[in-house]
Specification:
alpha/beta; 9 strands
Length: 278
């Protein structure tokens, strides 16, 4: 994989239709728990979860288990939301900078991407549909739960929530249908394309950051390392490359018998080495 990966989490098929067409995704064959779409290069994935918090939580976990790049992907929850009349116009997209829940005190403040031409807004998630349009924020039934699940799995800089206002009065909510949703999402696809480009770039950086050192697998396959010893080995390998670019570590440790001996040798070598600045 190159240039990162995107994972879209969307509640309704009508919200996903334009993205599936624009990004040339196809439905995965077989009996899947949720409809899963991906593109030919398998660097863009999409799950349609259905409405509600339980559905989005299950859908996120399912996509996370299927996508081979889920740990370094850029995750986007996209969909429609209601809003107070003073928040914005019908069809206007917003990048969420604050997430609240009707039943929980925990507040999330998602990372705000620089130079993204989207207005910011607060989103509050409820357990059921709302029709109180006197509020000064956006409201939905999935956003907070999506973020709550994903932030436990990946770094928060790789998570975004984007909502398009679908209704801001008792009258406009009656106008919502599949064609209505698809049309105003299609009209705003350029904003999603820009977000997508940012997402690919950040995911690519994260992939490089988490890439294993080429010796890590060789060493840990030959000797047993505990979890904490693996973390220590990763750190020492990076430092070794900086301090001893011409020395072959593998040849130096080939006669050692266990993880502790290897780590002790590396630590001692690094501790007594002084960098020469030229």
């Amino acid at each position: 994989m190159s240039n990162g990966c995107i994972c879209w989490v969307i509640a309704l098929a009508s919200e996903a239709k334009s993205l599936i067409e624009e990004f040339k995704m196809y439905l995965m064959p077989g009996d899947t728990l949720f409809p899963i779409y991906k593109n030919k290069n398998e660097n863009e994935w999409l799950v349609i979860t259905g409405v509600g918090q339980l559905n989005v939580a299950s859908g996120v976990s399912y996509l996370y288990s299927l996508c081979p790049y889920s740990k370094t992907s850029f995750w986007i929850n996209f969909g429609i939301a209601g809003a107070g009349k003073n928040v914005g116009d019908i069809g206007e997209p917003f990048l969420i900078n604050e997430l609240r829940h009707h039943d929980f005190k925990k507040i999330y403040y998602p990372f705000i991407l620089p130079n993204l031409k989207l207005k910011n807004a607060m989103l509050k998630t409820y357990n059921k549909p709302q029709n109180n349009y006197k509020r000064s924020f956006l409201f939905d039934m999935e956003g907070w739960v999506f973020y709550n699940i994903v932030q436990k799995k990946i770094t928060r800089e790789l998570i975004a929530v984007v909502k398009i206002i679908s209704d801001n009065s008792p009258e406009t909510i009656l106008s919502i249908n599949k064609n209505f949703i698809n049309k105003f999402i299609k009209d705003k696809i350029e904003y999603l394309m820009t977000l997508r480009d940012f997402g690919f770039s950040l995911s690519d950086l994260e992939t490089e950051r988490k890439k294993e050192h080429f010796l890590f697998v060789d060493i840990t396959e030959k000797f047993h390392f505990t979890f904490s010893q693996c973390q220590q080995l990763k750190n020492f390998l990076i430092r070794w490359d900086v301090n001893f670019p011409e020395r072959s570590l593998f040849s130096e440790i080939k006669d050692l018998n266990d993880a502790k001996s290897i780590l002790d040798y590396m630590e001692s070598s690094l501790k007594h080495h002084k960098l020469k600045w030229e």
